[in-house]
């Protein structure tokens, strides 16, 4: 084509419209979400559950559950001068289901899970430079701005989807935490704090926080700063020991390599090599496992321990106390051992990925507070995060989310994750990553428990194996393609998981499922063996299995052959997998609901049950029933130990709220693992109502729980900084409850119930214990800062009375700044006259970070 003709051909014809530019539209589109009402007077009926069993003819119709819903607005402003393409869709992640959409311009549909599409109605187009509003009624109240997921996208026929720039999260320069500029502030407490009239939750406003902190009392600087608290402490008379001279270590029964990280911890506390004798002797049979005796006097330091773990824990205690006393230690004798043998932390890296570097940081912090088990949740519906060399599609496809909806090259964009392939929320652990994690954990006496949740929560695995099937089938290798295919094509069952997936459950009646699982376990066992830490415990998952398999030919045949109801085939899966693991010398663990219908006689004697029923639900009965079977029971109670729950009832605190509206540091500290019903004396239910916790299944004599575990699920945790914000300092309270028996916990009495305020739990002793604990936590925060941990700074409590500002903090010694709105910050040193609305924040010891800013106004309304 001649040059002039080519140039002319490239010009638009006279009167023709410019071509749509989806990227430019996504870059300039205004997008803002406003939570309008969490307690509408009426709610539309929920969609039908495809898995619900039909009600038999003549049977009474059960009463419908109480309806709750939420109204929110999505306000959209199209940029001027940019053509909006026909067939435009907005794709976003939405917690809950749309019950109604009030819009003349858009329709809605759920794709799968939380992926929701708002499509421009057929025959309509959006004009440039115009404002549009979508009013949604959904099934889930949004009690926090964090419920609104980021990274909504635009899509149109023939165009690659693009993330709407206005929906990308930001970063707060002062706090270092994720911000949500696309979500309007939530300020209307009467309409937004609760879902109905029986809900007694209220926002933790500055005035309420002030009253809370004042009621708990002021903590003095503690004499003993060790976290968790030692079992026995004595302070003999004598001259102090000057550790600024450093220590000369001698070892018996243990190598330096076996306790090297703990020795490094002593160095980081300022105690280096030198002249003071420090003898460490391991192998003392008079001390229990992980136990130690630590003696400090003017002559030097002596540590006796049962094992390397005990020696390490003694060194951790020594490092904390030495730092606390400025390395000039008064005489001290500690005899110590843990209350519970299993003290764990569960980290979900499946929903949103958190990689090797962050896991290693957490392992180091766990060791410092004597936690000994890391439960790694490596796969779920939204991601498969562990390299399995024999099945490369698991990570090639299952470790990545993108904007496609067909799940062929990557997974659907669930949970508002950044869809870029290199985004931090995407990715997986390589074999070398996992080996490094195992090595770091081994050096710190921490056991790593891998978990790939099955048979539910397995969408990532299913879609990855479908990609494998397509690849091999296209090459004509049908038998090989079928080998790991995890679906039964003839299965026509319709079901919906609690997270609204209709395709996330493995078929438990086909051999491919067990072949797949055995291959995964074999790969993990090989890595553990290579690291010198044999795989002894594997967590199956087995929770929240939807009503799958009802119309599976394979499952119907198995049910007929074995006489097992189809509804109980999930239990048979647990029994079969536990036996497979036992054949490899591996114990099985599972979430407690997955063991409900399992036959205890067909399970290993040491089946490990992770009880996640609520305190005001089935948790107490499950824990006691499973312990009475002789199983090790690990308390994973969601309304106390789920660290993805908010740390305060506030629209500005991130976290899920399905189990509780708040797990603050005090609530977790006050937990009584040795007397579960007694918790009724100190905690309220999810609606903040006092109640009673009964003991319907008393513990049999000689039976008890084996451990405690904190859980950090990552649906709303997209950044490593958010991992640390949710864990710390709450992890200190978890460590305290796993290690130490509090004086205020009453001895367990079989069958006894406790109601809120029960005097058998000594509230004065509890508050005294809290003040001691709070003082020790405050001392520990400087070490976190030195390690670069982004722990949560609780905003201050504050009130203005008669023109004077009064402020306090959750933990002693926390610096507080104040200013008139928009003015200069001033350090708070005591009550001060102010002219009106005042902003406050707390500040880290090193001054590098601050809490979120809160505003206090002169009290005038009861709900302030």
UniProtKB/TrEMBL annotation:
Residues 27-208 form the Chitobiase/beta-hexosaminidases N-terminal domain. Pfam families: CHB_HEX (PF03173), CHB_HEX_C (PF03174), Glyco_hydro_20 (PF00728), Glyco_hydro_20b (PF02838). One of its GO terms (cellular component) is membrane. It catalyses: Hydrolysis of terminal non-reducing N-acetyl-D-hexosamine residues in N-acetyl-beta-D-hexosaminides. It comes from the Bacteria. InterPro entries: Beta_hexosaminidase_sua/sub, CBM2/CBM3_carb-bd_dom_sf, CBM2_carb-bd_dom_sf, CHB/HEX_N_dom, CHB_C_dom, GH, Glyco_hydro_20_cat, Hex-like_dom2. Residues 42-63 are annotated as: Disordered. The active site is at residue 544. Its EC number is 3.2.1.52. The keyword Zinc-finger does not apply. SUPFAM superfamilies: (Trans)glycosidases (SSF51445), beta-N-acetylhexosaminidase-like domain (SSF55545), Carbohydrate-binding domain (SSF49384), E set domains (SSF81296). It is an enzyme of class 3 (hydrolase). GO terms for molecular function: beta-N-acetylhexosaminidase activity; polysaccharide binding. The keyword tRNA processing does not apply. Residues 1-19 form the signal peptide. Keywords: Glycosidase, Hydrolase, Signal. One of its GO terms (biological process) is glycosaminoglycan metabolic process. PANTHER family: BETA-HEXOSAMINIDASE, BETA-N-ACETYLHEXOSAMINIDASE. Belongs to the glycosyl hydrolase 20 family. This is beta-N-acetylhexosaminidase. The lineage of its organism: Bacteria, Pseudomonadati, Pseudomonadota, Alphaproteobacteria, Sphingomonadales.
